[in-house]
What does this fold into?
Amino acid sequence: MMSLGRVLVIDDEAIVRISCQRVLTPEGYDVVVTSRGDEAIGLLEKERFDIVLTDLKMPDMDGLEVLKTIKERWPDIQVIIITGYGTISTAVQAIKLGAFEYVEKPFTPEDILNVVTKARQAKGS
It folds into this structure.
């Protein structure tokens, strides 16, 4: 089966990383997970990704910082923000910074699959 794209999931909660992997891998996505924003940037420097799902609140580098860095250096990557601290102002800020979409925890497998599918279609891959 051909990969539908490479997805990088950044979240300090293992359950979120595992959930995303469990939902996306059987659908044909090549999924890589990491718990840290700085580690994610390191991975992005070495490998190609189509879509990034990043948590907003992380200990080392927050999701908005990760988003800004990705959009500056790899503008064609679609970035989806995941957060359990969903505030409208943060969502608006993330979208202004170039986020494709915003998903609030707790999310369903369908939520993740739908947003990743939309991001892939918008990217035109």
Notes: Strands lie at 5-10, 29-34, 51-55, 78-83, 101-104. The mean pLDDT is 93. Residues 5-123 form a domain with the Rossmann fold fold (CATH 3.40.50.2300). Residues 10 and 34 are 5 Å apart (CA to CA).
